[in-house]
Fold:
Amino acid sequence: MGCEGWVFYLSVRGVLSVKLVVYVSEDIRETFKKQRIIPMATSSKDGVPNVIYVGMWWWEDDETLCVANNYLNKTLSNIHENQKVSFISWVREEGKSASYQIKCSAEEQLEGDLYQKMRKVATERERPLPGRSVIVCKVDAVYQGSGGKGAGDKLA
Structure:
């Protein structure tokens, strides 16, 4: 399942800060990859929810999910107001199902390596997409999404 670890930062001024980092296991990342198109939920600062389907996304590493902003409107506005986002996956194979929800902190990037990676994928296709920005989502928590025993349990 997912796991957690602590990262310690020492600033130039000698101030130590600590951050809990959540790592998403390969099994959970594979569940998302198999689904391909995943729901992404956001909410405004006033708590008005918004859910979209995301088709252009990838796992950059075991703690970062990236989403291409081609046509995000309400979603992008919500991310600017409230950086919390959520994704859920569900797959069924050989009579077994698996479902996981991840909660993330998101930020829009308009430059840098991840932006360049997204631009290349979005614009160099048979039917090019705008590739306006990349939404970088750092995983804060992983939950069991399936029903039954353990439903809704925090895994990391």
Observations:
- The mean pLDDT is 90.
- The longest strand covers residues 96-109.
- The radius of gyration is 17 Å.
